[in-house]
Automatic annotation (TrEMBL):
The gene is dgt. SMART domains: HDc (SM00471). It comes from the Bacteria. The keyword Hydrolase applies. Residues 60-263 form the HD/PDEase domain. This is DGTPase. Keywords: Hydrolase. It comes from Marivirga lumbricoides.
Length: 450
C-alpha cells in the first residue's frame, strides 16, 4: 500500500530554492517560517479583523490576530507532543537531524498563518465576495470571460485558498515559506471545481487553492510526497501535520469563543463553567476553582485546563491513527473523535444560539455585505475600464489610481478578467474591517477624506 514518508514530509526547501541554503544554527528553516509570518504585513492586519465579536471595544475579546497567536501556541504543543512519538518511532528522522521541535515549529507556523487569507468581517466576508460575483451585473460580464473553474473560484470564494495565494504571491517573497509549512497550512488540498466530492473525507469539505495557484500546489505536493487521489484532477491527501493545525484551530474556537461569550455576559457563567468542567471530567476540582477570585478569572482558569485536556486527547487520536494517516485512509477531524466530542457539540450549540446569532454579530455581517459589495463594484469597474473593455471615465480612472501601484501595474499587464478579479479581491480581502468601512464611506460620498 502506498503511503507518505515522514523524511520527505519534513521538507525544508522553499519553492524555487534548493535545500542547500545555509541554515542558521540558532533557527531552523521551520522556525524561520514563523518569524517571516510574524513580521509580514498581511499578518499584522489581522489585529483589526473580526474573529467573532465585531470590532470589539473590550480588550479581552479576540480579534483574528489574538486568535491566530493562540492557535499557533496550541499548535506548537500538539506538534511537539506528536513529534516526540514520531522521532522515537522512526530513528532515521533523528539521524537526518530532525527533532520534536521541528514538528512543533511547522505546526506553529502553519497555525499562525491559518487565517491570513480571511477577508474583513469574518466568514460573512467570504459570502459577500461570492454573492457579488454570482448576482451583480459586472459579475455576469466577467462570467462570460472566464473558464468554468475560474468562475467557481470567484463565486465560491474561500479564505483558505486566498491564504495560500497570499503566501505565494510574487510580491510577498519575504514570506516565502518552506514546502512542509505550506503543505501543513493547506487543510483542503483540492481545487474549487472537481468532478465529485468525496463527502467522507474531511479534506474535501472545502478547497485550498485557486486555479491561479494550482501549479504551485501541485509542485509542492509532489515535493513533500502527498498522495494523489485522482489521476485527472489535482486532488491530494492532507499532509499529516495538517490534522494538528486543524485541531489547534478547533480547540481554540470551541473553548475561547465560549470564554468570550461568557465575559461579554451573553453566556451565563454557570453554563460555561459546567460545559468546561465536563471536558475535564474527573480532573475537575470545584474546590480549587472556588479559590480563584472573580468570574473572569475562574472562566480563564477552566479554559486553560480544558485546552490542555483537549491537546492530550487529540495527540492520542493522532498516535492511534498514524499509520492510516500516512496511507491516506484516515481523513477525519481529530476533534470529531476525542472523548469530549459530545460536550464539544453542546458548546457549539450554545455558541451558535447565544454568540454567532447575537444581534451585534448579525448587524455587522449585514454591514460587511454592503461594504464589500460596494468596494468590489467600484474597483472592478475601474480596473476593467482601464483595459479598454468599456469607456473609461474620469471617475473610473480616479478610483483605479486609489489602488496600490503594484496592483495597478499587474492589472495593466494582464488581459485576463480572472486575474483582474483576483487582484481586486487581493486588495479588498486584505483590508482591515475599519479601513474597509472608511474607504467605502469615502467612495460613496458619505464622509470626506480627513
Amino acid at each position: 500500500m502506498e503511503k507518505m514518508e515522514w523524511i520527505k514530509l519534513l521538507n525544508p526547501d522553499r519553492l524555487g530554492q534548493s535545500g542547500k541554503n545555509a541554515q542558521s544554527s540558532a533557527r531552523s528553516f521551520f522556525e524561520q517560517d514563523y518569524d517571516r509570518i510574524i513580521f509580514s504585513h498581511p499578518f499584522r492586519r489581522l489585529q483589526d479583523k473580526t474573529q467573532v465579536v465585531p470590532l470589539p471595544e473590550e480588550d479581552f475579546v479576540h480579534t483574528r490576530l489574538t486568535h491566530s497567536l493562540e492557535v499557533s501556541s496550541v499548535g506548537r504543543s500538539l506538534g511537539k507532543k506528536v513529534g516526540e512519538v514520531i522521532t522515537e518511532k522512526y530513528p532515521e528522522l533523528k539521524e537526518a537531524g530532525f527533532s520534536a521541535f521541528d514538528f512543533g515549529a511547522i505546526v506553529a507556523a502553519a497555525s499562525l498563518s491559518h487565517d491570513i487569507g480571511n477577508p474583513p468581517f469574518g466568514h460573512s466576508g467570504e459570502d459577500a465576495i461570492s454573492d457579488f460575483f454570482e448576482k451583480s451585473t459586472i459579475g455576469k460580464t466577467i462570467k462570460a470571460q472566464v473558464s468554468e473553474a475560474e468562475w467557481k473560484d470567484l463565486t465560491n470564494f474561500e479564505g483558505n485558498a486566498q491564504g495560500f495565494r497570499l503566501l505565494n504571491r510574487p510580491d510577498n517573497q519575504g514570506i516565502k515559506l518552506t514546502l512542509s509549512t505550506l503543505a501543513a497550512f493547506t487543510k483542503y488540498p483540492r481545487p474549487s471545481l472537481i468532478s465529485e466530492r468525496d463527502k467522507s473525507r474531511r479534506s474535501q469539505k472545502k478547497y485550498g487553492f485557486f486555479q491561479s495557484e494550482k501549479d504551485i500546489f501541485t509542485e509542492l505536493a509532489e515535493a513533500v510526497g502527498l498522495l494523489r487521489l485522482s489521476d485527472s484532477e489535482a486532488i491530494y491527501s492532507r499532509h499529516p501535520l495538517t490534522f494538528l493545525v486543524e485541531a489547534a484551530d478547533d480547540i481554540c474556537y470551541h473553548i475561547i469563543d465560549l470564554e468570550d461569550g461568557c465575559r461579554l455576559g451573553w453566556v451565563p457563567f454557570e453554563q460555561a463553567r459546567d460545559l468546561l468542567a465536563e471536558i475535564l471530567g474527573e480532573s475537575y476540582m470545584p474546590e480549587k476553582l472556588e479559590k480563584t477570585k472573580g468570574k473572569n478569572e475562574k472562566i480563564g482558569y477552566l479554559r486553560a485546563l480544558a485546552i490542555n485536556a483537549l491537546i492530550e486527547q487529540c495527540v492520542n487520536i493522532f498516535k492511534e491513527n498514524e499509520a492510516e494517516i500516512l496511507s491516506g485512509q484516515f481523513d477525519t477531524a481529530l476533534m470529531d473523535l476525542v472523548p469530549s466530542k459530545k460536550v464539544l457539540r453542546d458548546i457549539i450549540a450554545v455558541s451558535v444560539q447565544k454568540i454567532y446569532r447575537s444581534r451585534l454579530v448579525l448587524e455587522t455581517e449585514a454591514v460587511g455585505h454592503v461594504v464589500l459589495e460596494g468596494l468590489l463594484s467600484s474597483f472592478l469597474e475601474a480596473a476593467i475600464a482601464q483595459k479598454g473593455k468599456e469607456d473609461s471615465g474620469q471617475k473610473d480612472l480616479t478610483v483605479f489610481r486609489l489602488l496600490p501601484e503594484a496592483y495597478q501595474e499587474m492589472i495593466t499587464e494582464t488581459g485576463s478578467f480572472y486575474e483582474i478579479s483576483m487582484i481586486c479581491i487581493d486588495y479588498i480581502s486584505g483590508m482591515t474591517d475599519r479601513y474597509a468601512i472608511t474607504l467605502y464611506r469615502k467612495l460613496k460620498g458619505i464622509s470626506l477624506p480627513g
